[in-house]
Design brief:
Layout: E1 8-9, H1 20-30, E2 34-38, E3 46-51, H2 52-60, E4 82-83, H3 88-98, E5 102-106, E6 112-117, H4 118-124, H5 128-139
Parallel strand pairs: 4-5
Antiparallel strand pairs: 1-6, 2-3, 5-6
Helix pairs in contact: 3-5
Length: about 150
């Protein structure tokens, strides 16, 4: 099975110039905890990721203002992506290896076309043992993404 069969297509995105407040409001309205950050309103080329945790740790806990820019709090290094042609197995492996609960799906130009969450894989993959192993691997304590 290809990841394109279970991914959420055309996820909402923000730009680096968006405010953290705008990102948080979009997360609330979309009921998501992560937003891809793209290089512009007309382009969907992935340049980062912003999570609800980024906002909590890098804005709220540090006393920054809600009008701070997404560029100041997003993760831009070590971005792990998959392509829509990848198999569900390949994506589960990437999620487990990198301990990520969500992975952006990009096309050949690096543009965001979808996103896959751990819950999508568990619910829709049809491979209960592999999905269980992936969730366990993702959940192992690590400092890999603690910044």
């Amino acid at each position: 099975m290809r990841i394109s069969e279970i991914m959420t297509r055309n996820p909402s995105c923000v730009t680096p110039e968006s405010t953290v407040r705008e990102a948080a409001q979009l997360m609330k309205s979309e009921n998501v905890g992560v937003l891809p950050v793209v290089d512009g309103n007309s382009s969907k080329r992935l340049v980062g990721i912003v999570t609800d945790r980024d906002i909590a740790i890098r804005v709220v806990a540090d006393g920054a203002q809600a009008d701070a820019r997404v560029a100041d709090v997003m993760t831009r290094d070590r971005l792990t992506t998959c392509s829509e042609g990848d198999s569900v197995e390949d994506v589960m492996k990437a999620m487990g290896d990198e301990q990520l609960r969500r992975i952006p799906i990009v096309n050949e130009r690096g543009e965001v076309v979808g996103i896959v969450a751990q819950a999508d894989v568990v619910r829709k993959s049809g491979n209960d043992k592999r999905a269980e192993a992936t969730v366990e691997q993702i959940s192992e304590p690590s400092q890999k993404h603690a910044q």
